[in-house]
Amino acid sequence: MERRKFLEFSSLGLSAITFSSFKSSSPIRKPIVISTWDAGIEANKTAWKILSIGGSALDAVEKGVMVTESSQNCCVGLGANPDRDGFVTLDASIMDHQFNCGSVAFLERIKHPISVARRVMEKTPHVMLVGEGAQQFAVAEGFPLESDKLSNDAKKAYENWLKKSEYNPIINIERTKGNNAFAPPKLETGEWNHDTIGMVAMDANGNLSGSCTTSGMGFKMRGRVGDSPIIGAGLFVDNEVGAATATGQGEDVIRICGSHLVVEFMRQGLNPEMACKKAVERIIKAKGVEKSKQIQVGFIAINKQGDYGGYCIQKGFNFAVCYAEEKNFLVDGKFIL
Length: 337
Ligand code: GLY
What we know:
Layout: H1 2-21, E1 32-36, H2 40-51, H3 57-70, E2 90-95, E3 101-107, H4 113-123, E4 128-130, H5 131-140, H6 152-164, E5 196-202, E6 208-214, E7 235-238, E8 242-248, H7 250-255, H8 258-267, H9 272-287, H10 289-292, E9 297-303, E10 308-312, E11 318-324, E12 327-332, E13 334-335
Parallel strand pairs: 3-4, 10-13
Antiparallel strand pairs: 1-5, 1-11, 2-3, 2-6, 5-6, 7-8, 8-9, 9-10, 11-12
Helix pairs in contact: 2-3, 3-4, 8-9
Bound molecules: glycine (GLY).
Glycine binds near residues 216, 227 and 248.
């Protein structure tokens, strides 16, 4: 009996090993672009225009997220919620297929932090510029200094927040306060808290790139920087393996080097969805279940086959997937808690 069980087990094990040892024979799905949240649909459209005519993944992920940065109705870019002192501060990062990367953090009054991040990557020997120095660099590169006036929505949200001034910054939990329903939160009450767009793409040549841009947590402490501009946390690309990006509570993504971890799980043979799931599990293990219920983190990833996937801590996260003009759709992220 024991011997029979052993033989059954080993034959199953053997077939699993054999199966995963061979490369999939299905054709590579490329080009492809995926991005976080529903704003990703519009961003993907712009990225797709570039990818579909043979443009580079790097151009696609920059131009794609610029759409969201320009949107005054979204919580990315200068239209977004300010910090608790009333100033919008922006973080962004970009990475190409050759481990080149650039990022900016705590950047004020610049409309397209993602493009400044790309300039840091392409025109300096550095990876990251922050604050006043990042702004100086942007202006020297010809980026106009915008007004520091808040958008109408952000002004309303900030005024509302000031009434209590409670320091309780949370992001991306799609739960309307009080009723536990997963209805979309309302911007005017400061509940609309999508903070980030992260995008990863593979172009027709099979090269990967990624971008990530955010205003961070609404009403955050001045100077607070999240995961989005940190290479390996908010974004990571390894052209041999895949690309991943993150959204949600940045501190918890930084703690586990989230996007790098997702890529490493893919290197070990997991598909993008399972790799994202394992990274989410790591956060929950580090933080504990009860505390993890208070936050949201979502990861999305693609591999070199053009497989895609995402996973999050709790219900409410979605991401946009595009691999043809008529195939640009939202996927609900699977969740653990
Ligand atoms: N994930 C964005 C942030 O924490 O700032």
